[in-house]
Amino acid sequence: MTTADSPAKKPITVKFQRAALFGYVGLLVLIPLWMYFVPPLDGNTSWVSLFFPIIPLLLPLRGIIKDNTYTYAWANFIVMLYFIHGLTMLWAAPDELIWVLLELVFASSMFIGCTYYARHRGQEQGLKIRKLKEELAEEKAANEHGK
Question: Which segments cross the bilayer (predicted)?
Answer without folding.
Answer: 21-39, 45-65, 72-91, 97-118
